[in-house]
Specification:
Largest interface: A-B, 65 and 65 residues
CATH class of the largest domain in chain A: Alpha Beta
Family (chains A, B): Belongs to the peptidase M20A family.
Number of helices of chain A: 11
CATH architecture of the largest domain in chain A: 3-Layer(aba) Sandwich
Protein name (chains A, B): ArgE/DapE family deacylase
Number of domains of chain A: 2
Organism (chains A, B): Phreatobacter stygius
Cofactor (chains A, B): Co(2+); Zn(2+)
Domain Peptidase M20 dimerisation (chains A, B): 205-317
CATH superfamily of the largest domain in chain A: Zn peptidases
Helix content of chain A: 25-40%
Oligomer: homodimer
Distance between the termini of chain A: 23 Å
Number of strands of chain A: 20
Structural class of chain A: alpha+beta
Chain lengths: 427, 427
């Protein structure tokens, strides 16, 4: 069943020979500061590159109504990206192999304060084996690898012998609505591969994620009478304390989720952003903080949302002011379920063989308490959804970086996987 | 020594007759949203109104170097106003009376969220005895009253028989540098009156104020590994707790300051503003919060600044991350001493008589734990610096308002005070 050894060797050499070009392509992608809402120019570049390769092109916007009706849809907020989703479809001469969706996202998280970076965040920089830059690891390296697989095959006169849908999405970092929109657009395949930076391992399970904003009102007075007012900022601290209690409860349940039990702290609450007040000498009348918390696979986002709301409501009851001025919980992003990749699929077996051949090592598995777009395909298409990508450090942090050698190994695996899963035919 | 009763009655009637015009003038002032840095148009209006009255005009900028060299100067920050200070000088035909400085500020604190106001903050609105609008009470009502005193006297053919310097300043709400700049410009008088909204009482003492910003660095990581990062927002909470401890210590010392001892809580720390983080799913790398704290009269700002810095430093030592990444304390506004108005001055006696005649009640005194510009004249000119103005509610809050009847009584007092202190002469 596995790939002919001579063909495999030829493909691996082709990947290696193309690798410098692949890194240049990655650099170009990283130079786009494709922050949420600003992914347009990067998507235009991606569109042109796909088009250049002769793929059938599709470009479309989110369908907010359809997303909101879908159980996997996350709420829209004013910050929701309006950038297009770009899809390029490779169609073979003859459909002899198994179809595949390859997907990457171009949206990147904010760089944070410049001074925390050793070099400018959006100037790609290589030092030793590390490729630095915001969004390089997460996940423009993987994005470039999707193209590199086609380019390497083409350099030896080959192409996949099945339909391969290459999807460049947005909103992976905030809602997961980009991947869902591809599903709603009707794209389907017998397997999906998303090359997120996952340590050259296959994701066995991942958590769902909830995003919410808590808005606290205060009672502003002149600070000389601060005792008679209500400081919204300090009221927020109390609510955050209550949410930490909820996080602890949820971590205590990890025994019910064997895949997550080995993780010392699978459920992470993050207070990611806070804003409040207008003036040092006025008791602040408002404070809002943005949170992210994980949920276990199998848990329904709606139920967990209710638990968050109940935690805020009950903490407010203990406060004279907040009980009369209840804080508001706004669901402004991720409302997504986790998933488990069921072991034993043929797609996973093909990837495991490809990884063994490409790297000389068996494919290990990983459970991650973060959001992944693969959930759309695992939960709603019910096809093998493989998340597998390079070794990285500091994604979402400063000096985000990926290992170049690892990226080469991953690209080699991806090429062998495509060749075996889809089959190959002459260009 | 006191004013001839017939003249007093004539003056009081003139104030009453002019009062509608005075309220219109107040409305015009309130319509200027003269927030910090945006006081220019309001000051231009004030300049024109002074000029129209035939006063000698002066308009000048802050001299940052001179302010920084002066012990009463507060640090400049990027937010420091660049709006001019406007001074109009009334000079009599014959200098027979005692000179006087009248001063008001035109800067107002931010309105905060619109929805918290019953009506738009900068649209003056009268309901019953209350005049609503941001900056109406604090202190455009008093500002308009300075003009009203002259207008009322003029309507009966009189004017002060001494030099009266009418100063319209900025930066009262953030640094006190406007009043100090008038002092540095060389303006002096035998007494000063500032009509801040102080419940128709005379301020016996007020607190000094320190403003500072604490900047906390975090160590951002992807939230799925939140435990290995350092959340700058939550680190800030710990520092705020330590500052609350310092506030409690300072309140415990109130026995050493008999004027403040009756106040249950004379030293108020306010956490007025907070900002931190960029993204719900990234551990926040930074958080900064703005504080205001009071100090007792006689305490040196430099010493109290050191106490604040030591509190932050010692709280950071208890934290593994903060001890290696010490938070920064930035002094970005008020660094001012408190003052005591020494009882027994002739100026205070004249105001007490004026108040008794105008309102039928004895003048009471008030100790306030807030900043007042009178400190410049009390501390550095060492002249009687009288702070006295109308009854108000919710200054720095929503639906800020002053009592119209109170403002009329205060204007009557002010007119009698000016007439007795400066004497009057025919226009």
């Amino acid at each position: 069943m596995s790939l002919d050894a001579a063909l495999a060797a030829k493909i691996l050499k082709a990947v290696d020979d193309n690798f410098d070009r692949q890194m240049e392509f990655t650099k170009t992608l990283v130079r786009f500061a494709s922050l949420r809402g600003a992914e347009g120019p990067c998507q235009d570049f991606v569109y042109a590159e796909m088009d250049k390769r002769g793929w059938s092109m599709d470009r479309f916007a989110m369908d907010e109504d359809a997303i909101q009706r879908h159980p996997g849809g996350s709420p829209f907020s004013a910050d929701h990206s309006k950038a297009p989703i770009v899809v390029g479809i490779h169609r073979p001469r003859q459909e002899t192999g198994r179809s595949l969706i390859l997907q990457s996202h171009v949206d990147v998280v904010p760089a944070g304060p410049d001074k925390m970076w050793s070099r400018p965040a959006f100037e790609p920089h290589i030092e030793g084996d590390w490729f630095y830059g915001r969004g390089g690891a997460d996940m423009k390296a993987g994005h470039a690898a999707m193209f590199a697989v086609f380019d390497a095959l083409k350099s030896i006169g080959l192409q996949p012998a099945a339909t391969v849908t290459v999807q460049s999405v947005v909103e992976e970092e905030a809602t997961g609505n980009g991947a869902l929109q591809c599903h709603l657009r009707g794209y389907r395949a017998e397997a999906v591969l998303i090359p997120e930076p996952e340590e050259e391992k296959i994701i066995r399970a991942n958590a769902g994620v909830l995003w919410f904003r808590v808005e606290v009102a205060g009672l502003p007075v002149h600070v000389s009478h601060a005792g008679s007012g209500q400081n919204a900022i300090e009221a927020a601290f109390g609510l955050i304390g209550a949410l930490r209690g909820l996080e602890a409860q949820w971590n205590d349940k990890k025994g019910e989720h064997p895949l997550f039990a080995p993780d010392p702290h699978p459920i992470n609450l993050n207070i990611g952003k806070i804003e409040g007040g207008d003036w040092a000498s006025s008791v602040p009348a408002w404070c809002a903080f943005d949170c992210r918390i994980a949920i276990y696979p199998g848990e329904r986002p709606e139920a967990m949302r209710k638990a968050v709301e109940a935690t805020i409501a009950s903490a407010s009851l203990n406060d004279r002011f907040l009980s009369n001025n209840p804080p508001k919980v706004v669901w402004n992003g991720f409302t997504t379920e986790g998933y488990v990749l069921e072991p034993g699929s043929e797609a996973e077996a093909v990837l495991a063989r490809a990884h063994q051949t490409a790297t000389g090592k068996p494919l290990e598995e990983l459970v991650t308490p973060a959001y992944l777009d693969t959930r759309v395909y695992a939960l709603y298409d019910k096809v093998p959804a493989l998340c597998y990508g390079p070794i990285s450090e500091n994604i979402h942090g400063f000096d985000e970086r990926f290992s170049i050698a690892s990226m080469k190994r991953v690209t080699r695996s991806m090429a062998l996987f495509v060749a075996e899963w889809c089959g190959v035919e002459p260009v």
